[in-house]
């Protein structure tokens, strides 16, 4: 087990491309974005609970932007969302978890509501989200290691250069990247994993057994 | 040969009133000035790019390390030799990080002779092990500039014309013992288009000045260890290519990575060709990279095939060199007071507390100082530009 003083930072990059998720919902009613979000939140909660000093960040990667779902920049450290104390004391849950869950669900709701998808841009900007994740890790953890988990849907080959730049930067920073690809192979992530020995785990999940 | 006017030395110039740089504020504290100086030194590394200049990406660099008597001097801790070797290890790592398709060789000189420590190779591990072992050698005698450059030249003159040939000398002694006229050697170097740069550890020596000036390299003398490190890092970036180097089509192989598992019928364990002449650990491996021309097996890339001579690289390695050609533009600096948008850095979501913020001219997004340094040194792409340009 890790010692008490080690801080472990987990950054999750989640692909919320509405086109892909929409098609997914048509193919298979069972597995929707909300189910995926639930699963992600379970993992996030598990990470936070493992040790008091663990930190978390979640980035949603959309067609035109990537948005930090957690922590929110408008939420300063001293502000404990205490204006509705019902959420904190409500069900005896670990406070950090309840705050995090609430914040994440609100943010993603507002993100999906406000972004309009323009016609030609249908591919997710994975490289950009990874770049932001790395900047965040660079700011937060000068000495401690960070880890990035990607849940990706499909590749965009046109982003190769930027993606490679980001991967090399991650390698220099000693950041591990685990990739979980839903429903299809990702050549880009595979190449990254094999050649650069950076990928911890590379999984292709079969959706029916989720 | 020496008609160029020499640069005026610092002691020949006027009085420099260095105490006037420090200014006190109202309460008598120097904090603001010190912060300013630190800030400027952080930003100093944003050297302006040369623009549309051809760069030598495939570099063959020989590093000559002086291991003569003067390296036992303790002005660098614990002594010059140990400090130099440690910095060399760091240099080798950074060099292969930024120039993955290049090669380095190391030469040491002492006792009026020169010896090759490692041959030109593209694998950083070999060089770092050799450097680690070299710490124990005794430093005796005098260095020989002529012999070490000659030794390097023997190998470099056979290199193909499109590569950039360089020699970097780390010179600590003030004397050199040469068997022949070094100015003749300088003429040969110019003819072969080899660029020689020197980093001096003691003082400026005239023969080094002439050597570097004639061949087009740089000559610097270190002030202290951190300056030494900075000077070494200057040599990591690819230099502008010689105008007369031929540009030809270069053959390269892009081998596929074959992974075989024990349960495969045809898979047989085999040796990698790279281990043929090494006496260290010989490992049998199932999968690897197979040269497209001769099917020889290698475990690591980039490498030059021993059987057919083809350079084998992988696409990410070439992509790594790409950012030198299209460097990211420096961001514009705006004082915090004038900035009117959100108070958060768009890359790391931190609050903007420093006295100036940086804007990308293309997408107008705002970054803090730390992110600016990180983006320019490591990331080489603006996180917001990647978003706004979309797939392109």
UniProtKB/TrEMBL annotation, chain A:
Pfam families: Tfb4
Record-level Gene Ontology MF annotations: zinc ion binding
Single GO biological process annotation from the record: nucleotide-excision repair
This protein's UniProt keywords: DNA damage, DNA repair, Metal-binding, Nucleus, Transcription, Transcription regulation, Zinc, Zinc-finger
InterPro entries registered for this protein in UniProt: TFIIH_Tfb4/GTF2H3, vWFA_dom_sf
Gene Ontology CC terms, in alphabetical order: transcription factor TFIIH core complex; transcription factor TFIIH holo complex
Top-level taxon: Eukaryota
Localization of this protein: Nucleus
Main location, first listed in the record: nucleus
Family: Belongs to the TFB4 family.
Subunit structure: Part of a TFIID-containing RNA polymerase II pre-initiation complex that is composed of TBP and at least GTF2A1, GTF2A2, GTF2E1, GTF2E2, GTF2F1, GTF2H2, GTF2H3, GTF2H4, GTF2H5, GTF2B, TCEA1, ERCC2, ERCC3, TAF1, TAF2, TAF3, TAF4, TAF5, TAF6, TAF7, TAF8, TAF9, TAF10, TAF11, TAF12 and TAF13. Component of the 7-subunit TFIIH core complex composed of XPB/ERCC3, XPD/ERCC2, GTF2H1, GTF2H2, GTF2H3, GTF2H4 and GTF2H5, which is active in NER.
PANTHER family (UniProt xref): GENERAL TRANSCRIPTION FACTOR IIH SUBUNIT 3, TRANSCRIPTION INITIATION FACTOR IIH TFIIH , POLYPEPTIDE 3-RELATED
Function, as annotated: Component of the general transcription and DNA repair factor IIH (TFIIH) core complex, which is involved in general and transcription-coupled nucleotide excision repair (NER) of damaged DNA and, when complexed to CAK, in RNA transcription by RNA polymerase II. In NER, TFIIH acts by opening DNA around the lesion to allow the excision of the damaged oligonucleotide and its replacement by a new DNA fragment. In transcription, TFIIH has an essential role in transcription initiation.
Record-given protein name: General transcription factor IIH subunit 3
UniProtKB/TrEMBL annotation, chain B:
Keyword DNA repair set for record: yes
Main localization of the protein described in the UniProt heading: nucleus
Keyword Transmembrane: no
Pfam families: C1_4, Ssl1
Residue spans, zinc finger C4-type: 291-308
Subcellular location: Nucleus
InterPro entries registered for this protein in UniProt: C1-like_sf, Ssl1-like, TFIIH_C1-like_dom, TFIIH_SSL1/p44, VWF_A, vWFA_dom_sf, Znf_C2H2_type, Znf_RING/FYVE/PHD
SUPFAM superfamilies: Cysteine-rich domain, vWA-like
Residue span(s) of domain VWFA: 60-236
SMART domains (alphabetical): C1_4, VWA
Any GO molecular function: zinc ion binding
Keyword field: DNA damage, DNA repair, Metal-binding, Nucleus, Phosphoprotein, Transcription, Transcription regulation, Zinc, Zinc-finger
PANTHER family in UniProt: GENERAL TRANSCRIPTION FACTOR IIH SUBUNIT 2, GENERAL TRANSCRIPTION FACTOR IIH SUBUNIT 2-RELATED
Family the UniProt entry places it in: Belongs to the GTF2H2 family.
Protein's UniProt name: General transcription factor IIH subunit
Annotated organism of origin: Denticeps clupeoides (denticle herring)
Taxonomic classification: Eukaryota, Metazoa, Chordata, Craniata, Vertebrata
Name of the gene encoding the protein in the UniProt record: gtf2h2
